[in-house]
Specification:
The protein is α+β, with helices and mostly antiparallel strands and about 750 residues long. It folds into three domains: about 5-185, Aldehyde Oxidoreductase, domain 4 (2-Layer Sandwich), CATH 3.30.365; about 205-295 and about 355-430, Aldehyde oxidase/xanthine dehydrogenase, molybdopterin binding domain (Aldehyde Oxidoreductase, domain 4, 2-Layer Sandwich); about 305-345 and about 440-555 and about 575-745, Aldehyde oxidase/xanthine dehydrogenase, molybdopterin binding domain (Aldehyde Oxidoreductase, domain 4, 2-Layer Sandwich). The strands form eight sheets. The chain has a seven-stranded mixed beta sheet with strand order 11-14-9-21-18-19-20, with helices on both faces. Helix 10 packs across helix 11 (about 410-420).
Length: about 750
């Protein structure tokens, strides 16, 4: 925050204060990032005259604990008893600033601003008390919801001071002193989620539970091939079925193509609106539709795999990075390893299918949804219906999982359009099949790897030809491979190349996008190279992290004739080898790596990855029998996400959940296409790990002198290669393709 930041204060009915925070710099930065009008960042503290403290959580809650964590930051500096705090979920409003859930940014985006809100409110209450007592504010202190003047042995509750504090000029945020972490009483303490009592007692707090008086229920049938349009349908017959109120075709407004950034628009389909969802879904099952399927109907997953092999033998479309002399290093190497890795499209598959309740009246739109990007939802509705943002109200409801699916708001747009068409409130609820066959899928890909080690066992050469979905040198959303992706700059002779395969399908971010796929490939291939070098896989990794390498930097060419030394590469952006070494060493120590005698068929595997500002390493102990039945017995994980874990119980749950999620991706999750249609339509073919498959998980956090960062995503990527590498160590079978169920494996 800066000196332009200020606090807005108004009186509450009954005598109280509402405290908000505004940052012009934050708004400007957000505008630049999102390329849309800046929001008005603010967060609120409400103190009633009866002493009730209500804190507002501005970000959407999708199960990551943000509704608890943000108020904890405010409450810590406000000096209140957490047990006495009430928490409210904010709706979309400019006064709440950045209302976004994704990218594991909650901790970093809110660490200072939310604490400043609490500290500013505390200072205003202290000033109010000091004025009332006619004593210096420096002689007063706040503790547990009261202001104390120790010299005169007087105190006042926050409730008694609320009305007076509302009249105090807000302090300059640059002068506000934040608490020393040694003084924290809330931050760093395991805290139960504020919604847990409602969840375990079955209260209607999720979007799927929400109802409105007079509400109707809708389903929306779209073409099984993305982008397809309705040619003919038995709409009149459906209208005559029990409980049916409306049936109509939506022409749609889709921007279709092989690379679709953002929301494609309102997809074509048939809406059925009824007195109950069961009536609507039953009628839908009787629909007979002839579709104009379009260009996407020619797509088949088997063709994609064949095309990838063909492209691997051709010059790449684009070179992402080159360092050193790869060809020369290969010729001089002691051992060379080549391998082809692949991973499929997968669905987000959250337990709560997409749903939204909408009410459109007199040109005004009101929606209730579990969106991760409510501002984008409003913008999409405004664009589709041709109305200003100011005519749209978005209420944030808790989502039963998201994993990135809520970043896209097609379901919100559909509900608003249906409500507008029928002029009545309506709840749109997708079926499980809708959710899985009309997703924004995690992109699949193929990596054709070649690497080498020298006679001392050092990794000296690395080449990756990545075949991803896209068009020309443009990749589909969430398929990007960064030029500096590890082990770039750690290997002196390094090449990264790209070619693309057209895909007429929506792709998008899934928990730890990019990293959830690349970590499997790169950490598995590093394991292959370690074994080729005859070195311990963990020790090989530590050695790789020890030296940055001597990559030839563009613009700093070496002169072989003059035998000049190759200049060291510039500082790696967003990568700190020492932090990664610490988490890797920690997980090695905690797991007893190399010190434990394991029975035949049981082994340990290791993997690490940096993503979304988090450094994580996992060791997995896995057993495999002769029938390829796999049991993940124990997982040790260590992570560095900065100097402070805000809510340890929530942090541990995030790491545990990420590991279970990664196990699902490893074993049985894939989306394949036949004639443009998604084959997998439910959990029977896109499986989630069950509780009986869950290993013992031990989570260790390694603090560092860095601001706190999120961990909803970075704990996931390393678990997939850790288990895959353990399987190899147990039975000698190198895993190079996901899911491993296709290779004959299954959970024990």
């Amino acid at each position: 925050m800066n000196r332009r930041s200020f606090l807005r204060v108004t009186s509450l009915a009954g005598g109280g204060i509402v405290l908000g925070l505004y940052s012009e710099r934050e708004a400007t930065a957000q505008q630049q990032r999102q390329q849309q009008p800046a929001l008005d960042p603010s967060a609120f503290v409400k103190i009633g005259s009866d002493g009730t403290v209500t804190l507002v959580s501005r970000n959407p809650e999708i199960g990551q604990g943000i509704k608890t964590m943000l108020p904890m930051l405010i409450a810590e500096e406000l000096e209140v008893d957490w047990k006495s705090v009430k928490v409210e979920q904010a709706d979309l409003d400019a006064k709440y600033g950045i209302q976004f859930t994704g990218g594991s940014r909650a901790a970093s985006n809110n660490w200072v601003p939310m604490r400043q809100v609490g500290a500013a409110a505390r200072q205003m209450l202290i000033t109010a008390a000091a004025n009332k007592w006619d004593v210096p504010a420096s002689e007063c202190r706040a503790s547990n919801g009261r202001i104390y003047h120790d010299k005169s042995n007087r105190s006042l509750s926050y409730g008694e001071l609320a009305e007076r504090a509302a009249k105090v000029p807000p302090p300059d945020l640059t002068t506000i002193k934040l608490k020393d972490p040694k003084e924290f009483t809330i931050i760093g303490k395991s805290t139960m989620g504020v919604d847990v009592p409602d969840i375990v007692s079955g209260q209607p707090i999720f979007g799927i539970d929400f109802t409105l008086p007079g509400m109707l229920y809708a389903v929306y049938q779209k073409c099984p091939v993305f982008g397809g349009k309705v040619k003919t349908a038995n709409i009149d017959a459906i209208k005559g079925m029990p409980g049916i109120r409306h049936v109509f075709t939506v022409e749609g407004m889709v921007k279709n193509g092989t690379v679709m950034a953002g929301e494609p628009g309102l997809e074509p389909g048939i809406a059925i609106v009824a007195d109950s969802w069961w009536y609507a879904q039953s009628a839908r099952n009787k629909l007979q539709v002839t579709w104009d399927e379009g260009a996407a109907a020619s797509q088949n997953t088997t063709d994609f795999a064949q095309r990838a092999v063909e492209l691997s033998k051709q010059p790449p479309v684009k070179t992402l990075r080159t360092d050193g002399d790869f060809a020369g290093a290969i010729k001089a190497a002691s051992k060379v390893v080549e391998a082809q890795y692949s991973y499929p499209l997968i669905s987000h598959a959250p337990l709560e299918p997409r749903n939204c309740t909408a009410r459109v009246q007199n040109g005004k739109v009101e929606v209730w949804a579990g969106s991760q990007t409510p501002g984008s939802a409003r913008g999409l509705i405004a664009q589709t219906q041709g109305i200003p943002d100011s005519d749209i109200t978005v209420h944030l409801l808790r989502a039963g999982g998201g994993f990135g699916r809520g970043l896209n708001n097609d379901f919100v747009n559909e509900a608003a359009w249906i409500s507008k068409t029928i002029n009545a409130p309506v709840k749109l609820l997708w079926s499980r099949e809708d959710d899985m066959t009309h997703d924004y899928y995690r992109p699949g890909g193929w990596h054709f790897m070649k690497g080498a080690v020298d006679s001392s066992g050092k990794l000296v050469a690395w080449r990756n030809h990545y075949i991803g979905y896209g068009d020309g040198d443009r990749l589909a959303p969430a398929a990007n491979l960064q030029p500096n992706e590890f082990p770039a700059t750690f290997v002196p002779n390094f090449e990264s190349h790209l070619s693309t395969i057209p895909l007429w399908l929506k792709t998008g971010a899934l928990r730890a996008p990019g990293a959830n796929a690349y970590s499997f490939v790169f950490q598995s291939f590093i394991d292959e190279l370690a074994h080729a070098a005859g070195r311990d896989p963990l020790e090989f990794r530590l050695a790789l992290l020890e030296e940055p390498g001597t990559a030839n930097v563009p613009g700093s060419a070496k002169s072989k004739a003059e035998n000049e030394p190759i200049p060291k590469p510039p500082q790696r952006e967003f990568y700190n080898a020492e932090r990664m070494r610490r988490v890797l060493q920690t997980v090695a120590d905690k797991s007893g790596w190399g010190k434990t005698s394991l029975p035949k068929g049981t082994a340990m595997g290791v993997g690490f990855h940096y993503s979304f500002s988090g450094y994580f390493a996992h060791v997995a102990q896995v057993s495999v029998d002769a029938q390829k039945r796999v049991s993940v017995q124990h997982v040790w994980t260590a992570g560095d996400v900065g100097s402070q874990i805000i809510n340890p119980s929530g942090a541990e749950a995030q790491a545990q959940g990420a590991i279970i999620d990664g196990m699902s991706e490893l074993m049985g999750q894939e989306i394949t296409l036949e004639k443009g249609r998604v084959v997998q339509t439910n959990y029977d073919k896109h499986q989630l790990s069950r509780i009986r498959n869950a290993p013992k998980i031990e989570v260790f956090f390694v603090p560092s002198d860095n601001p706190p960062t999120g961990l909803g995503e970075p704990a996931l990527p390393p678990i997939i290669p850790a288990i895959a590498n353990a399987i190899f160590a147990a039975n000698g079978d190198r895993i190079r393709a996901l899911p491993i169920a296709n290779l004959g494996y299954r959970w024990a």
